[in-house]
Inverse folding.
């Protein structure tokens, strides 16, 4: 079954404690991306990757890091989380940009206290 | 500055009637547009897309209209069904094969039986 898998799905953490949200897809997609969803703001793109070792900033990259060492994985790293990073995070993948459909993961609820 | 705007946070229609969801954009470089549907506790799912070389694209009950001069697109659902109740996001990009995707704030559609 085609899947985009995120972990953890729910997390409460404290300010400044580094955390990583993993994302894995089993469809051999070249494109992967991270979004955050906040009330009244919709989905905002954090980072995206067009292929292995190629990453680019989206609209709201501050406070986040990513890496794309292999095609299937695209982890989102919060080096020093702050309360304004409390949000619902989605990972997505696509065969190639948006010419085809984008598959989203189920989301990761992150609370920073 | 919000480049893609969905000015109606919510919409309520009767089953069987038409639902019209609207989206405006400001960036004239956008030439590829998509609609996503999102149920609670799930990731968004792709619904329909349109390239700027077209002004209409139809897929079953769903039709997207694009008015480039007005920088406006709309999603028509006919006939609306209770299962269509969800949050709908429009999104735009510069080309169908780029990595950057800008979403609107979303419109919550409720279809009443």
């Amino acid at each position: 079954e085609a899947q985009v898998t995120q972990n953890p799905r729910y997390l409460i953490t404290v300010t400044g404690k580094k955390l990583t949200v993993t994302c894995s897809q089993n469809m051999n997609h070249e494109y992967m991306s991270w979004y955050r969803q906040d009330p009244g703001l919709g989905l905002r793109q954090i980072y995206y990757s067009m292929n292995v070792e190629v990453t680019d900033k989206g609209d709201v990259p501050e406070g986040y890091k990513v890496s794309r060492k292999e095609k299937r994985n695209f982890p989102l790293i919060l080096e020093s989380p702050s309360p304004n990073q409390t949000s619902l995070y989605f990972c997505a993948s696509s065969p190639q940009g948006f010419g085809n459909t984008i598959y989203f993961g189920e989301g990761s609820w992150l609370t920073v206290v | 500055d919000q480049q893609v705007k969905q000015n109606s946070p919510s919409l309520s229609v009767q089953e069987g009637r038409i639902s019209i969801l609207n989206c405006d954009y400001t960036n004239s470089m956008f030439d590829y547009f998509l609609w996503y549907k999102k149920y609670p506790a799930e990731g968004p799912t792709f619904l329909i897309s349109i390239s700027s070389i077209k002004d209409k694209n139809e897929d079953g009950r769903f039709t997207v209209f694009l008015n480039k001069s007005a920088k406006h697109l709309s999603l028509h659902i006919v006939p609306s069904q209770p299962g269509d109740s969800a949050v709908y996001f429009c999104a735009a990009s510069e080309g169908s094969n780029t990595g950057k995707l800008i979403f609107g704030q979303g419109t919550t559609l409720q279809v009443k039986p």
